[in-house]
Sequence to fold (165 residues):
Amino acid sequence: MSTQTAKTNTARVLRPSRLNVAGWCIYCVTQNCTDARCIANHARAEWAVCGKCGGSEWVDGHTDPDTSTQRCDCVGGLTEATTPDAEVIDLHSYVVTYPAPPADEPRNDASGLVPRIDAGPAWDYHAAARQSRRDAEQANPEAVAYAKANPNSGPAQWAAYGMGY
Fold:
């Protein structure tokens, strides 16, 4: 009686341990980690041989072992395989057109903005200050005389000219 063994074609699955030899998690860097998120991340991750070190854990160790003196940042010669980017969906381009403004509407130069409403002449600060001084002299000439005699006195200026000082 002969027995035949069934040979299955199984692909070699590369996967480092989630905890390193000292017991530190490779995802959250916590010792003896039992976090469900780290376990799920490790279960769904795909791993491949590191391209920088070729699995030797020394940068360029697979091409020239005599001169490789720098440790690689991979995990035991493996790195997480990058998944292909999502498929790009080509959207149809379109042009937005706005309706033309009425012909009788006033437009500003090349910008096409409507000009502002003319609010009259600009406010003349100096004329308003002169008027407030004249009003103060008529209302309280003694306080204004005292304020002119003491120009560095804040209370005297306030008493003479009030809030406009």
